[in-house]
Amino acid sequence: MNLQTVGTSPHRGGGFERVTGQQKYVADIKLPGMLESKLVTIDCAHAKILSIDTAEAKKVPGVRLVMTAADLPQPVPRFGPQVADRPVLADGEVKFHGEPVALVVAETLHAAEQAARLVHVQYEELPAAFTVSMALDPAAPLVMDPSLRPNDPLAKTNIFNEHHFGWGEIDESKADLVVENTYSFPMVTQFAIEPHAFIAAPDKDGIAVWSTIQHPYWLQKILAGLLKLPLSKVRVYAPDPGGGFGGKQHTKYEPALVFAAMKLGCPVRLVLTLEETFQAVRRTSCETHIRTGFTRDGRLVFQDIKAHYLLGAYVDIADRVVAKGSYAGAGPYNVPAVRILSKSILSHTPPATAFRGFGNPEVNWAVESNMDEAARLLGIDRLEIRLRNLAKKGDTFIPYDKPADGDWSQTVLKAAELIEWHKPLSPSRHRGIAVGIKLGPTTGLSYSLVRLLADGSVIVSCGTSDMGQGARTVVAQIAAEELGVPYDKVSVVMGDTATVPYDQQTSASRSTVLMGNSVLKACRAIHAQLKTRLAKVYKIDESEISVEHGRVALPDREYPIPELIKVALGKLGGEIIGVGEERKDAEQGHPLGGPACFYEFNCTAVEAEVDKSTGDVTITRYVTVSDVGTSINPLQVRMQDEGAAVQGLGHTLMEHYIFDEKGRIRNLGAADYRILTTMDLPKEFYSETVENADGPGPYGAKGMSEGALLCVSSAVASAVGDAIGTTIRDLPLTPERVWMALQAQK
Description:
3 domains; Aldehyde Oxidoreductase, domain 3; Aldehyde Oxidoreductase, domain 4; globular
């Protein structure tokens, strides 16, 4: 395949604006007559609201509205991507620390903040369940009103849903070794650099909303339902977000802003503080009990997994996270018998939502750690035990699902080579290795519109969100490749539901595959029209013309497309428009709605030192290798994997929410919640790929960007365990936790 633009790394679309501060984020947008707002919360995880006194707040100069649930349509509207359980504002009861009970709108942010402090809320504190054990206690207070779950046998429990997956019959008698342990994964936040921000403004007979949203069309649908408006009357602007990682996928406070704007007849803006963001979005925490059976030579006999995911006060998209994250929980291995029971558990904590990896890192932490423990007990090399069980290309390692779509042993062996797995180490250094797999999208629908203009330049319109992952760059490269134009002559339009065609969502590493294929089809629709026009101009049959990779082959000569566009369009000029559609429909009977489009497979290997006097862990060498099919943009692929790795090191070594005895978060904000800085990065960092052009996307690409986060914790813990001679089963691996494990051995 003779590619010109694809496979190169041109300058990043929107990159200059990001690094120079010229990009306009939602918080930078100022509309005429716009008002500012502030949320009112109480310092409590669970409470009955007795009264809300807004009189003093309304006296503050500049205050225009103090809105509570009583000011909303009754019953208070509820929303959610999976189930409509979340009220626009707390309705009679606060269910997590940080849930807003009121919204203050004023002419300045200072006035809104001052007034918010003067809203007096009388409440009766109620018992709260903020851990798995507390939520599952039969005496625990119910988080969700049973009336919201009619005909649900679990309605009078805090278990929202149970997911049962697996195959084969588990027979312990066939195993020479059974490794059984319980592992815990912490509650962490996405910590995107850009704060969550929202603006709502009346728009003639409809509403316009600006949001830091990853799924503008999903937000449009929810708002139209709440307001009982046609979709055409709800316009969502979604400027490129400054990071998302799943935390900006779904509706949060946009409905409250919409009702306030409609009451006041003018634009209203809300920008969350970092502390408020911590209370708005997080990853599901998880407790996993796992029993793994092995033969003497290290072959897997069975996996028996019970995973308890903590959802929070409202479901959001987290039950889907639980299902998809645990479905492939047995890992990328050939396992004869698998039994997986995953539970979605409600709690009086901030609602969990999507987070890079979508539920898989939580279970992978347990599965891969158990593989390490088995290797130690059986006396088998940790690399070897994985290679013996790894699914080969074409293996149906998950029955009735997509077979293994890559030669994954290549990925593992490349990681082992880069970490120098078989080379002797100094006594102070230790290695670890782990693998991980995640399912790509199981359904999808992406439209695009590509316009080839008379001067040979191109405009691509699509609904994908570019959160920094580089979607603008990739779709521009595909259009440049197919239409034979320089990359710099392609403009990409995104982020406005009124001007760009529909895209289901930006998640599950889908954009390069689904939107990429859509853009590819739109370009090839242009090819077809170009052939028709040129056949007419040159008075030849269309069959005598071929168009491929930006070049037109006529019977006697060949030209780049831009050289013939004026000939094709004639004196009137104009443009040729192509529309692309990539659709993956749901499949009835499949537990996830359909098999995966592709798999994200990664192998991570680390070399580490442990200071046994303090428990401090230093990563001396870090290797991440992903199976990506084809790198449309190699530099962006490496950047995505490196970013995922650093994010994974965060929850592995330091990140976690801390709650007090009443369920209040005690480490809100950057000062008390640690993330990695440049001082914490690995001393050596290697990011590589395996490319066999065996993916379903353009030019054989697979989706990527989440895979490199899946097994970070397992790989680091593998090295730490090798260093200290014992296994730590609770994340993060803080110095205190490592030091205590060392003392316990003594």
